[in-house]
Amino acid sequence: MNWFRLVAGELSLALGDSATRLLLLGSVVLYAFFYPYPYSPEVQDHVPVVVVDLDHTSLSRQLIRMAGAGDRVRVAARAATLDRAKALCRSGEVQGIFLVPEGFQGKVLKGTKAEVAVWSEALSFFTYRQVATGLLSASGTLSAGIEIKRLRAAGLAEEAAFAATEPLPLQTVQLFNPAGGYGTYVVPLVFVLILQQTLLMGVGMVAGARSEAGDSSWFSPGPGLLGAVAAVSSKLVAYLLLYSIHALAYFGVLHRFYRFVARGAVCEMAVVMALFLVSVILFALTLSVLFPHRETSLFVLIGTSMPAIFLSGISWPVEVFPPWLRIFSYVIPSTAGIDGFLRVSTMGAGLGDVAKDVAILMGLVVVYFFSAVWVFFKKSGG
């Protein structure tokens, strides 16, 4: 039993079959280029809105011009009534409504409170944010300008008028995602998940093919526990070699190509990624004995991507999970892997800052190594 031949043989099995080669190589490459592309604009700019101007004054027209001058919204239509504007929203022609009520300019000139109204499509949080912030920003800018003119007319110096209008300026800084883009947030997370899911299905396909062929030596090339250990360790190294290249391409090359934020130290990123990949491979080997046919792993595991996304905290914060679900989520390597790796790579955290995630991944490595050896030993007739 030559251990190095076992490693080479596993790579040959994984890449020699057209289906597993497509999954372990082709799909990883395709995802790398096609998944991030739709997110390249990062944010949704120039969201179409309809304006309902019931005041028809110079001040209302100025406000509408200011609303359409920014990058967030675009005045795509004008409507005479609110009902007509709502009809345009329902048809999908616009995604927001900006209404200037009758008497707007008169109230402003009298120094009384004047109001405008904004309706925005809330089915998409990103659309809602762009419409609400774009239109309210224009309203706030006009309001501040009017107040400054009033204070200047009352005899205040320009600097004092600005200070009186905004006595407590708020400076916001978008940490780790300067553009506030969705692609910068979601694509690196999904890259980690792609590595996990393709590994789980790929290893399952190889195991299913060997089970279908009646090849018990795949699970244990030698007698006893030693044979199972040799099988697990050789397969671990084979898939780790292959997926280390994928990880380097994803987070070394494509990260820079798509200009995603990268602040982490290379060695610390490598440590977290290595622990993640090892835990996923051992998890895949543990599950592999459940697949009697080559295609079984695809049917069983293809539907696990959405739960894995949810449990990792991509779509919903883990802080609001029920305690039992939060504990269960750490059974899947991507939960700690995504959190730990993204904190290191994007936020510039050190290993000490992600000690919890590192400890969980190390625990999974130990647990899944022994579980993989045990199930391989039992599968081979031990």
UniProtKB/TrEMBL annotation:
Residues 24-372 form the ABC-2 type transporter transmembrane domain. This is Abc-2 family transporter protein. Keywords: Cell membrane, Membrane, Transmembrane, Transmembrane helix. It comes from the Bacteria. GO terms for molecular function: ABC-type transporter activity. It is found in: Cell membrane. GO terms for cellular component: plasma membrane. The chain crosses the membrane at residues 236-258, 270-291, 298-318, 354-377. PANTHER family: ABC TRANSPORTER PERMEASE, MEMBRANE COMPONENT OF ABC TRANSPORTER YHHJ-RELATED. It is a multi-pass membrane protein. InterPro entries: ABC-2_transporter_component, ABC2_TM.
